[in-house]
Amino acid sequence: MEARVLDAAVEFFERPFLKPLQISSGSITRITEARVRVRVLCNGREGTGRGNVYLSDLWAWPDPSLSHEERDARLRRECQTIATTLDSLTAGEPAHPLELGLRLHHAVYHGQETMPVLARAMCASPFDAAIHDGCGQAVGISAFRFYDHDVPLPIADAALGGGACRAIRDLLRPPVQELPAWVIVSRGDDLEKDVLPWVRERGYRCFKVKVLGRSNTDDAARTSEVYRAARRFGVSRPRLSVDSNEANPDAASVLEYLEMLHSMDPEAYGALEYLEQPTPRDIQAHPVDWTAVARLKPVMLDEGLTSLDLLPLAREQSWSGLALKTCKGHSFALVAAAWARRHGMLLSLQDLTNPGYSAIHAALLAAHVEFINGMELNSPQYTPDANADWLPRLSGLFQPREGIHRLEDCWPAGLGGSL
After folding, report:
1. What are the pLDDT digits (tens) for 18-50?
2. Backbone angles phi, psi at 45, to 5 degrees
3. Which of 192, 205, 282, 338 is deepest in the core (most CB within 10 A)?
4. How far is CA 356 from CA 33, 52, 77, 160, 395, in A?
5. pLDDT for residue 306
6. E strand or H helix at 356, and its extent?
7. Cα four-point dihedral sign 320, 326, 329, 330
8. pLDDT, tens digit, for every residue of 399-416?
9. Strand pairing category for 321-324 and 299-301
C-alpha cells in the first residue's frame, strides 16, 4: 500500500465546557476544536479522510506566562501551517500510511522550539488520523487492516527492531463491541450533583479521580470519598484510576499517597487500578525510579511519551506501561503500543475530551487493542453538543447505557470518518 497527500484543510470551532474541568495546572472552561480534511492518493485511488482534536493548551502547553488566548492562537496557526505543508512534512514521497504518519510526527518533533513538542504532536494528530481514514476509504478497508501483509516500514521497523507489520498484527485483536465507560471526577466536583446522575442515568461504574498532588492526605481522602460515594450510589464494585497531571514531586510522594490510602480505606485502595503520570513530563530531565510504586499499583507514562526513542528509557525507569492518547498521532500510538506489548508492558487508553471523529477513532482503537481500562470518552460529560452530528446514529457510543459504550458491528472503511 502506497499513499501520498494531495491537499489538506483545517477549520476551527469554539467549544464551551458544560462545567469546568479542573486539573493541577488550572481549570478548562472552553476549548478550540480543530477539524481537518485530508485528500490522499492511495494505490492509485483518491480518498478524503477526516479527523479532529481539541487544542487542549492547558494540557499540552501549561505555560503560566501565556494566556489561554495566546496559546490558542498559536496552536491554531500551527494547525494551519501543517495543513498547508502536509505533503512536505510527510517527505513528499509515497509511502505506507503508517510511514506518512511517523514522518509527520518526526517532522513536528524536530520542529520549531518555541512550542512544546507535545503541543506540536497534538496539532499534527488529526492529520495523521485523516491520512489513515482517507486511505481506508480509497481502498475500501478498515485502517486496522493495513498490516495484513508484511511490507517494509522503515521508521516503525527501526523502532521495533524489525517486523513492524507482524508486531502490529500481534497487537490487534478482532474488534469488540462493548467497552467500559469512565466518568471524570474533577477536584471541584460535587459528587451528588456532578457524579450521581452519571451513575443513575447511564450506569457508570468506573471513575477517574483527578487529584492535585499537593497534599497526600487530601488526595487519599478524596480518593476514598469518591469510592464511598460510588458505593453509596449503588455501584457494587467501583473501578478507580487516579491522575495528578504530573503534580507529584517524586516517587516517594506517590508511595506515601498509596500507603495513606491503604491505611485510610483498604477497599478504595483495592479498587484503584492504576496511576497516570504522577510526576513531571520530561522523563530525561526528571528521571524517576518507579520500582517500589509499581510493586503496589501500575504507574502509566502519559505526557512524558513524546518520542519512540523514549520507550527503552521508560522501561528502564520501571514505568508499568503506557497511557496512550490518539492525540499524539495514530501511527505513533500503534507503534508505541506494539513496542510495549512486545516488552511486557501494560497499555491504557486515555482521552483528551475529544468529540466526534476523534472519539470514533479512539473507540475503534480500543475495540482493536486490549487496554486495561477499555477506553475513556469524556466529551459526553463536558461538550455533548460537539457530538450532535453523530446522534442518534451512534447513541450507543456517545450515550452509554449500563456503564458500557456500544460500538456498531459494521463500521465504514478507514477510521469511520465517513460517518
Report:
1. 998 888 778 899 999 999 999 999 999 999 999
2. -120, 145
3. 338
4. 10, 8, 22, 32, 12
5. 96
6. helix 356-368
7. positive
8. 999 999 999 887 889 999
9. parallel
Burial (0-12, 13-18, 19+ Cβ within 10 Å), 115: buried
Cα–Cα distance for residue pair 219/57, rounded to 1 Å: 25
CATH class of the region 3-148 = alpha beta
**CA atoms 121, 123, 125, 128: torsion sign:** negative
Residue type (1 letter), 135: C
The whole-angstrom separation of Cα 128 and Cα 134 is: 10
Question: Which grid cell sits at 388?
Answer: 450532535
Single-letter amino acid, residue 316: E
pLDDT in tens, 140-157: 999 999 999 999 999 999
The Cα 219–Cα 356 span in angstroms is 33
Global pTM value: 0.97
Residue ranges matching CATH 3.20.20.120 in the chain: 170-406
Which residues in the chain are classed under CATH 3.30.390.10? 3-148
Give residue 22's pLDDT.
82
Please give the single-letter amino acid code of residue 146: F
Give the tens place of pLDDT for each residue, 97-118. Answer: 999 999 999 999 998 778 999 9
> Architecture of domain 170-406 in CATH?
Alpha-Beta Barrel (3.20)
